[in-house]
Amino acid sequence: GERAGNSPCLLHRRRDPVQFSFWIASALPLDSGKQQELLEMDGTNDRLLAEIAAMKKMLDNVLCCAVCDANISLSSEIFRMTDSLGGVFVNTHGFLHDIVTLLRIKGAALQGEPETAHCWFPGYAWTIANCKRCGSHLGWKFTEAVQGSGLRPSSFWGVRNGALSVA
User: Fold this and answer.
1) Can you tell me the mean pLDDT for 38-45?
2) Which of 14, 35, 58 is the last residue of a domain?
């Protein structure tokens, strides 16, 4: 099958600097206000330079709980599970969750058992993840619904952008 990273739409965006700059702005794991600033910038060159600066700032930064500042992960653990580094997903109650996907986090306490119903990632099950220190909702841990099914990665974390701050 075709890999998401090589989809014709994404390849087209990579060839067109204007579209590419807008795609980067929407894909970076930034709060919505900072993303909006990038999207509203005049000029592709200025937007791309601001995006590069934002990415440099993120390299190996410590990601903390936005409520209590407990260390949660490193920005180097961010990976792309979809066409972007995260995404906006809607749960069954109609709430929007803007998440970033991470390979590993620490300082999380899982709540409940893995659940496959309404999972945003086919083949995975989700479990609620809260900050171990303060109990605030961080996001979810996603694990293979069927152990040994060959999904890669076999587990990852979807953390709400609003639950994270950069140290």
Assistant:
1) 94
2) 58
